[in-house]
Design goal:
124 residues, seven-stranded mixed sheet, four-stranded antiparallel sheet, 51% strand, globular
Length: 124
């Protein structure tokens, strides 16, 4: 299995930006579709974005389209989430997940491995 470690979370004011990183180690990173999910207190984990193994196809939740960008660098075994125009409702713990296979998914149950999460707090 691949191991995942997220970083880059923090506290920002509404309208600000953050860039999350998820570093992978272990098995071949390019074998995995990578996804970002988030979980706010008292809520279920929800899909944010996903990116195909080559990076050529990306998927976004409607709530983040136009504000967030997912990307990956297979040479560095890292996936990123650039978050712009942040809103208080983006406040959550953000997790990256790895799904071994060709087809990405927005369902968190399909992902094989998770990182420990990184907290993002957006104040108004």
């Amino acid at each position: 299995q691949v191991q995942l470690v997220e970083s880059g979370g923090g506290s920002v004011q509404a309208g600000g930006s953050l860039r999350l990183s998820c570093a992978a180690s272990g098995r071949t990173f390019s074998n995995y579709c990578m996804g970002w999910f988030r979980q706010a207190p008292g809520k279920e984990r929800e899909f944010v974005a996903a990116i195909s193994r080559s990076g050529g196809i990306t998927y976004y939740a409607e709530s983040v389209k136009g504000r967030f960008t997912i990307s990956r660098d297979n040479a560095k075994n890292t996936v990123y989430l650039q978050m712009n125009s942040l809103k208080p409702e983006d406040t959550a713990v953000y997790y990256c997940g790895a799904l071994e296979g060709v087809i990405c998914s927005s369902e968190y149950g399909r992902y094989n491995t998770w990182g420990q999460g990184t907290q993002v707090t957006v104040s108004s």
